[in-house]
């Protein structure tokens, strides 16, 4: 399995492409610039089979519909945010006057529980990691030492908690219980910024000193 980080949109939100040797791939958080993303996928002759969302904030969902329609693939989201895609107030786009309200068609599949998930030949584990938002999830590809954490954990930082449904105590508990328990060599692919590792954040992240 290989992965690629693609920053998209004005907030440079990281979209991730996770691919297998047969060129099938998962698209995680297609936040903006759908045509650019489709062009990159076409250049690499990749065959998307699903869109996975770490959460439904506006900067992670803007290109969903154009990508979904192009490839005729399903969208997965956690049950606590299944209504957010259609609601600019909940997904946060209504809160920023410089951003057009974002409304996306409903997801095709709802993630109800943590645990193992299999899509095509991709097998991974879903962690519910709320705090940045109530339905935030992280996708852990154990065999490849990779966790895609959305906006829960960043290099040297953690997600903001001042948007609808945010809770700082809950976020720190999610990070401690679900992410810091992973092997230290695990790569953390965050929603913004560079790639880091669990070990690096345990050692140097100032927000996690209490742990």
TrEMBL record:
SUPFAM superfamilies: Metallo-hydrolase/oxidoreductase. Keywords: Hydrolase, Metal-binding, Zinc. It comes from Neobacillus bataviensis. InterPro entries: MBL_Glyoxalase_II, Metallo-B-lactamas, RibonucZ/Hydroxyglut_hydro. GO terms for molecular function: hydrolase activity; metal ion binding. The keyword Zinc applies. It holds the Pfam family Lactamase_B. Its cofactor is Zn(2+). Residues 12-192 form the Metallo-beta-lactamase domain. This is Glyoxylase-like metal-dependent hydrolase (Beta-lactamase superfamily II). Coiled coil: none annotated. The keyword Hydrolase applies.
């Amino acid at each position: 399995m290989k992965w690629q980080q693609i920053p998209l949109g004005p907030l440079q939100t990281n979209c991730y492409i996770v691919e297998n040797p047969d060129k099938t791939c998962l698209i995680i958080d297609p936040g903006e610039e759908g045509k650019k993303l489709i062009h990159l996928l076409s250049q690499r002759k990749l065959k998307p089979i699903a869109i996975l969302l770490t959460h439904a904030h506006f900067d992670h969902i803007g290109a969903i519909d154009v990508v979904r329609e192009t490839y005729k693939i399903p969208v997965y989201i956690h049950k606590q945010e299944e209504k957010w895609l259609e609601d600019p107030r909940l997904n946060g786009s209504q809160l920023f006057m410089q951003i057009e309200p974002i409304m996306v068609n409903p997801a095709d599949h709802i993630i109800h529980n943590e645990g193992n998930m299999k899509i095509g030949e991709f097998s991974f584990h879903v962690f519910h990691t709320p705090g940045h938002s109530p339905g935030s999830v992280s996708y852990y590809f154990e065999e490849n030492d990779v966790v895609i954490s959305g906006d829960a954990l960043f290099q040297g930082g953690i997600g903001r908690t001042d948007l609808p449904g945010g809770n700082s105590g809950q976020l720190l508990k999610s990070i401690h219980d679900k992410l810091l328990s992973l092997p230290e060599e695990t790569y953390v692919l965050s929603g913004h910024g560079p790639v880091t590792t669990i070990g690096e954040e345990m050692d140097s992240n100032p927000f996690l000193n209490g742990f």
